[in-house]
């Protein structure tokens, strides 16, 4: 992978990190437990609120996982290993990295883990 492409991915990872951190701050309250006060809201509204809170918690968990993978991807750029599958050492196709620059496996190796 050439240096211009690596620079693009470096910046994309930095931007992704900022975006995920901002989303995490904005959605901090969305995952809080739902107050079950029947005098304030009906049963279906509470169920919707509980489902919304669970979905927000799962989205937060996924953001945190992706945030945890970003430093490793940045380190792979520094060492020259970015874009190479950690299992087979083959190149990861650029389209896959454009979807998520933190991917560490090529499509073949990723399919083996499913």
SSE ordering: HHHH
Q: Compute the average pLDDT.
A: 88
What Rg, in angstroms, do the CA atoms define?
Answer: 19 Å
* Secondary structure tally, helices: 4
Q: How would you describe the shape?
A: elongated
How many beta-strand elements?
0
**Spatial separation of the terminal alpha carbons:** 28 Å
What is the SS-derived class? mainly alpha
Features of the shown structure:
4 helices; mainly alpha; 0% strand
Describe the overall structure.
The chain is mainly α and 114 residues long. The chain has one domain. It is built from four helices and no strands. It has helices spanning 3-26, 43-79, 94-99, 107-112. Helix 1 (3-26) runs antiparallel to helix 2. The protein is elongated. The relative contact order is 0.14.
Topology:
Elements lengths: L2 H24 L16 H37 L14 H6 L7 H6 L2
Helix pairs in contact: 1-2
Describe the structure concisely for a colleague.
The chain is mostly helical and 114 residues long.
